[in-house]
Design a protein that fits this description.
The chain is α/β, with parallel strands linked by helices. It has 21 helices and 15 strands. Helix 2 crosses helix 3, helix 2 crosses helix 10 and helix 16 packs across helix 17. It binds pyridoxal-5'-phosphate.
Length: 493
């Protein structure tokens, strides 16, 4: 399988090189030259473990890793770091199922791919005879940073620097990052929002002089953001797995289509679901749920992407994003893999802050439906689901749950629906308890966690216990414009 840049001017590379590079040299994102089909025997996968299904899916894309290597990576990724043996869980509500993707070590869905990526990347360096130390640069809206550092901490031959918007993440998210151990981990709070952080990181990737300084010191950059194809592909697995489990348990008829509803920020998770559909998984609609930063909702409604608007800080911070990087991959697919056209649209986005797609491209995206939840609707949904079924969801999942309910009421579409539950409610305990018990419910995050423990009747995850007493180890801050200097200082180049 070859991987091509969505902007076309870079040469084609194999899977391991695409993973190693993260971003193509022309600034585009890597895409597989074709989307493979799932084998026909996937109908009998109801009894397979998560790890087995992961192997069946990954081998279709990562064909320059041999069976032994892939199985070793998968085994090392999906192990006791997850607090349930099944790795992900399905919780039935009414016609919808919550697909819990937060059982990994940092209790958000980013663990699903970031537990695997470091293993794939280490092998990729070996395969491509790269002896350099790999420096992972990551912009985070709250969850990626911690999940990536957990994956890369003390991995020989790697270093990782995470940039997060100071004041733009939850207190638990921030503490998780600031207490991260590992001599090779670095955390920098930037004075800006997530888009600023992501743009700054992309600028460093495109900076040839910086790359040369690094290479002089035996280092090279890679990315752990969902622009790396090595993150996107592992995310396809849980959709295939969930479908196999539901079908195996008799919850779905042969070939029955399901909807998928995903709380969306950078468009990685929902794009993975779309790729699963293209591989032959019976998916009907892809419901793209946004919070008040509803640029994607407007895009699917109007065919116009307009990023210049007010940036809203919400209680679902991991979706506070106005430039959804992975949408570029859907754009590319929707214009028949026309890299020139994709590059033009992306240039318009970076210059004018907007672009418009044509009718043909819009028609191609007909399976996507956008929706959004306001802050009030998000809180009301947390409370509603709790009152209806005694189940506690986090604010990101609540945005999706609200959008799904609204979609169902409006359209009457009765397909069973999978809602991606992307974070543990413990990660956002204060928001959740205020929604359930009222504004004055708790005085701080720690009290909220105790209340949540009582209300949800679930065990407090070890990820929360760990940060209670852990020491703050990272204090770096930087202006957005100067993150290259901050990075140079940290790396001593
Ligand atoms: C990252 C994240 C999202 C958004 O996922 P994308 O792949 O960026 O669309 C949603 N919810 C949570 C909890 C996240 O951490």
């Amino acid at each position: 399988m070859k991987y091509k840049s969505t902007r076309g001017s870079s040469r084609e590379v194999g899977a391991s090189e695409a993973i190693l590079r993260g971003l193509a040299e022309d600034g585009g994102l890597y895409m597989p030259e074709r989307i493979p089909r799932l084998p026909a025997d996937r109908r009998d996968w109801g009894d397979k473990s998560y790890q087995e299904i992961a192997y069946e899916v990954l081998r279709l894309y990562l064909d320059d890793y041999d069976e032994e290597e892939l199985r070793a990576c998968i085994g090392a990724a999906y192990d006791e770091k997850f607090d349930i043996e099944e790795i992900v869980a399905l919780v039935k509500a009414k016609e919808e199922y919550f697909l819990e993707l937060f059982h990994g070590s940092t209790i958000a869905f980013k663990d699903m791919a970031l537990s695997l990526l470091p293993h794939l990347l280490r092998l990729a360096a070996k395969k491509n005879a790269v002896g350099d130390e790999i420096v992972i640069l990551t912009a985070t809206s709250g969850d990626t940073g911690k999940a990536a550092m957990s994956g890369f901490a003390d991995v020989p031959g790697t270093r990782i620097a995470v940039f997060y918007p100071k004041g733009g993440v939850s207190r638990i998210q921030e503490l998780q990052m600031l207490t991260q151990k590992g001599e090779n981990t670095h955390v920098i709070g930037i004075h800006g929002n997530f888009d600023d952080a992501q743009n700054a990181v992309k600028r460093i990737f495109a900076d040839e002089a910086f790359a040369e300084r690094l290479s002089g010191k035996g280092m090279r950059l890679s990315s752990a953001n969902s622009i790396n194809i090595g993150r996107l592909i592992p995310q396809i697995v849980y959709y295939v797995y969930a479908y196999a489990k539901l079908a195996g348990a008799g919850q779905l008829e042969e070939g029955e289509k399901i909807n998928v509803c995903v709380p969306t920020g950078n468009f990685g998770n929902i794009l993975a679901a779309y790729m699963a559909k293209q591989m032959g998984l019976p998916i009907n609609k892809l419901i793209c749920a946004s919070n008040e930063n509803k640029v994607l909702y407007d895009f699917f409604r109007e065919g116009e992407y307009k990023s210049r608007r007010e940036f809203v800080l919400t209680t679902s911070p991991s979706m506070d994003i106005l430039i959804s990087s992975n949408l570029e991959r859907l754009i590319y697919l929707s214009c028949g893999s026309d890299a020139k056209k994709t590059a033009d649209l992306m240039q318009s986005l970076s210059k004018e802050g907007e672009y418009r797609i044509d009718e043909e491209m819009r028609a191609y995206m007909g399976d996507f439906v956008g929706g959004f939840a306001s802050e009030e609707e998000c809180a009301a949904q947390i409370r509603r689901v709790y009152e209806e079924i005694g189940y506690v969801i986090d604010p990101h999942t609540a945005v999706a749950s609200h959008v799904y309910r609204q979609y169902r009421e409006k359209t009457g579409d009765g397909h069973k629906t999978l809602i991606a539950a992307t974070a543990s409610p413990y990660k956002f305990a204060e928001t959740v308890e205020r929604a359930i018990r009222g504004e004055g419910a708790c005085k701080d995050e720690w009290e909220a966690i105790e209340l949540l423990h009582l209300d949800s009747k679930t065990k407090i995850p070890s990820a929360i216990e760990e940060i209670r007493s852990a020491q703050i180890r990272h204090r770096e801050e930087s202006e957005t414009e100067r993150i290259d200097q901050a990075l140079a200082r940290i790396l001593k180049i």
